[in-house]
Design brief:
Largest sheet: 6 strands, antiparallel
Radius of gyration: 14 Å
Strand order of the largest sheet: 1-2-3-4-6-5
Strand content: 25-35%
Order of helices and strands: EEHHEEHEE
Structural class: alpha+beta
Helix content: 25-40%
Distance between the termini: 31 Å
C-alpha cells in the first residue's frame, strides 16, 4: 500500500513496501517533493542520496514480511530532516569501517548530514538524518 501526504508547511510522508522497488520509489518521490519545496542542485542531490540509502537499508535490513517502511521529510529553512522507519527494532545500523561489497552507505549519510542517529518506536526503529540545504 502506498500513501503520500504533502503539506504546504514543509512535511512529507510516504509509506512503501519493504522491497528494492519501494526503496527506488522513495528516492523518486523525495526528489519530486524537494522540487516542490524549491530545494535544488547539490542540496537536493544530498537529500536524495540520504533518502536512497536509508530507504535501501530499511528494505534490505529492516524488512518484516507484510510490513511497509515509512519515509518522512520536513523542510525547515536551512535543512531537511529525513526519517525512515521500519519494523526491525533489533537491527541497528552501524557504519562499516571495512566494507566489502557495500557498507559505505552510512558513511555517506554521515558525510552529507550534520547529524544522524536512531530512535526506538512502538514497533521497530527510525533512522534519521539532518541534511543542510
Amino acid at each position: 500500500m502506498n500513501s503520500e501526504t504533502s503539506t504546504p508547511i514543509g512535511e512529507f510522508t510516504l509509506r512503501l513496501s519493504g522491497t528494492r522497488r519501494g526503496a527506488r520509489l522513495a528516492r523518486l518521490f523525495a526528489v519530486h517533493q524537494l522540487d516542490d519545496w524549491h530545494v535544488t542542485g547539490r542540496a537536493a542531490e544530498a537529500v536524495a542520496l540520504v533518502v536512497a540509502e536509508l530507504a535501501s537499508n530499511a528494505a534490505r535490513h529492516g524488512k518484516v514480511a507484510g510490513r511497509d517502511f515509512e519515509v518522512r521529510m520536513w523542510h525547515h529553512g536551512d535543512h531537511v530532516r529525513v526519517e525512515v522507519s521500519d519494523a526491525r527494532g533489533e537491527r541497528r545500523p552501524l557504519p562499516s569501517t571495512e566494507p566489502d561489497e557495500g557498507g559505505y552507505g552510512l558513511l555517506l549519510v554521515g558525510a552529507l548530514s550534520t547529524a544522524w542517529g536512531t530512535r526506538d518506536r512502538a514497533v521497530g526503529k527510525t533512522v534519521w538524518a539532518v541534511v543542510p540545504v
